Amino acid sequence: MPRFEPFPGVRYADEVDLDSVLAPPYDVIGPEERAALVARSAHNCVRIELPADENGRDRFEVAADLWGTWRSEGVLRSDPVDTFYVSRMSFTDESGLTRSTTGVIGALELTPPGDGDVLPHERTTPKPKGERLNLQRACRANLSPVWGLSMAAGLSDLIAPGGNPDGTSLGRSVDGEGVIHELWALPADRVEKVKAVVSGSPVVLADGHHRLETGLNYRQELIDAGARETGPADLIMALVVELSERELTVQAIHRLISGLPEGTDLPAALSPWFELSEAGPLDGTTPARMIEAGSLCLVTPAGAWWAKPRPVTEEAAEFPLDSARLDVALAQLPEHDLAYQHGVSNITAAVASGQAQAGVLLRPASVEIIESMARQRLRMPPKTTFFYPKPRTGLVFRSLA
User: Fold this and answer.
1) pLDDT at 95 over 90
2) Is the peptide bond before 389 cis (omega within 30 degrees of 0)?
3) What percent of the chain has pLDDT over 70?
């Protein structure tokens, strides 16, 4: 079972305004947002997590220098003792209900995906891994956590009795979407219990597959160099959340289609696999209406259609997931390009602007299906789930030096 340990976190000093220095996950930050984050504060963590060349210096050298300078100047400070950090993300959903995701940040044992009991959740799409490895070499730190889902029932009650974390408050920030991010130090009398609970059940990797691979590659480099037998690089910083409906908000990742031959009648091409009917205007209620209708939704410049999977599609799909159902139909289309996007408005905007020929809205995977597939050690198709909200980078870092 996966080893899970507390660690002495590196955090911004108490006098630093967290709203000005935290950042979204590096892989969702575009050039304009990065520039805005840098303008917000000279100490915004995006300068380390997503570095840029500065004054003729390589970006990885820049990141390493900033990491060292901020620590020596006291902008970043190391906690004096090993700590588990309780993280809570709270927001108001579309129906007006307050939702929250509460988990614990610690150091999770590194094991290759599929080996041991840290289980991959989805197949991954190819992505350059050299960038993250170069950054880890330069800073010798875990700058943002991977996200794991623990199958241990009762973890939430252990770290947040009655739904309310206690212990020492370490910070609070509100992001641009109105999500409240809070951090506490777990009381010392629960540390051994948390270690035992998390280490006693498999952990499903919800987000951070490429960071996990980077951690494995970095550790192997140290082993090959004979630098040490064991050490901090044997583990990786991870946010672990109980795999339960109460803690998780799972949204879909939709598809954008482009590159089809001119004049392709996409509704006609998909009709052998889906029963199509006009959907009318799309708005914030569309995801709920899709679930009620038992349908995906095809978006084209000419309009939108409900797309209810036919029995032949259900039989041919590898898994009972919209991503797998759509893959059956897409395999029969002429050669095309596929992109992934979250949010109904992003899909409709891309189609309206001509960025894509069409979009397909998918329904989210249920927590029940996620758990069932994980217990069978099965991987979902790439880009099936979008866990919301996303942890902010900068609440806590983990040094490997």
Assistant:
1) no
2) yes
3) 98
- The letter for the amino acid at 346 is N
d(Cα 185, Cα 167) in Å, to the nearest integer? 6
- Output the six-digit token pair for 348: 């409709």
Distance, in Å, from the CA atom of 396 to the CA atom of 143, rounded to the nearest integer, reads 8
The domain segmentation of the chain, as residue ranges, is 4-249+387-399, 254-361
Residues 104, 182 contacting (CB under 8 angstroms): no
Mean pLDDT of the chain: 94
Angstrom distance (rounded) from CA 343 to CA 128: 25
Q: Which amino acid is at 312?
A: V
Q: Which pair of tokens denotes residue 264?
A: 């392709």
| Cβ contact 13:243 at 8 Å | no
**What contacts 185, CB < 8 A, 6 or more positions away?**
79, 83, 84, 85, 86, 167, 168, 170
Q: Residue 268 half-sphere exposure, CB side, CA atoms within 13 Å?
A: 3
pLDDT in tens, 175-200: 999 999 999 999 999 999 999 999 99
Q: What phi and psi, each to the nearest 5 degrees, are found at residue 223? A: -65, -45
pLDDT at 229: 64
Closest CA to 83 of 322, 401, 294, 396: 396
Which pLDDT tens digit goes with each residue over 205-257? 988 888 999 999 999 999 888 866 668 999 999 999 999 999 999 999 999 99
Helix (H, G, I), strand (E, B) or coil at 329: helix
Specify the residue for token string 């170069």.
Answer: 134
Q: H or E segment at 344? A: helix 344-353
Amino acid at 310: R
Q: For the whole model, what pTM was predicted?
A: 0.91
Whether the CB-CB separation of 111 and 124 falls below 8 Å is answered with no
Distance separating alpha carbons of residues 315 and 309, to the nearest angstrom = 10
Q: Computed over its alpha carbons, how large is the radius of gyration of the chain?
A: 22
